[in-house]
Design brief:
This protein has 131 residues and is of the alpha+beta class. The chain folds into two domains: 79 residues, 3-Layer(aba) Sandwich (Rossmann fold), CATH 3.40.50; 36 residues, no CATH class. The protein has four helices and four strands, in the order E-E-H-E-E-H-H-H. Strands 2-1-3-4 form a four-stranded antiparallel sheet, with helices on one face. Strand 1 and strand 2 form a beta hairpin. The longest helix has 11 residues. The radius of gyration is 17 Å and the shape is globular. The N and C termini lie far apart (38 Å). 9% of the residues are buried. Bound molecules: adenosine-5'-triphosphate (ATP) and magnesium ion. The site of adenosine-5'-triphosphate has 11 residues, from helix 1. Adenosine-5'-triphosphate binds next to helix 1.
Amino acid sequence: MKSILKTTNLSFSYDKIHPVLQDINLEFSKGVVYVIFGKSGAGKSTLLSLIAGLEKIEAGCIFYQDKDLARCNLDYYRSHDIGIVFQAYNLLPQLTAIENVVLSIELNHSKEKNKEEKAKALLKKLVFVRI
Ligand SMILES: Nc1ncnc2c1ncn2[C@@H]1O[C@H](COP(=O)(O)OP(=O)(O)OP(=O)(O)O)[C@@H](O)[C@H]1O
Ligand SMILES: [Mg+2]
């Protein structure tokens, strides 16, 4: 199966001294659920941050649908192609769950007419959320 997302020789360090990721080569196919596991500090969140376009790629490449992320419009990629549930949530605490989702729909310049209904529908897909 052709991969939708691929990393080639991906390496990363926060401080240029201690490597967090070294030569990571992964391929992800569309429609398949993957689990990335490893001990605390192994670099799982770092890998996800790079794939999500939140950290700058320093060495190696990430390809999304054969496009090199380093050459992509990351604002578009982050708002249309990739989604991430943060380990530390990163939600705005003064807003409700629905308001947090509505905000991201608004930031996306969506033409959605009823953003609140859309947000509720999306949140209902998360089985652990009660609305
Ligand atoms: N923003 C940061 N600045 C500097 N070092 C960081 C930063 N984030 C993570 N690190 C370090 O990078 C390494 C990998 O961290 P990361 O959070 O990716 O691990 P993890 O596998 O997600 O761990 P956990 O299972 O605890 O979530 C650790 O040594 C961590 O201390
Ligand atoms: Mg983590």
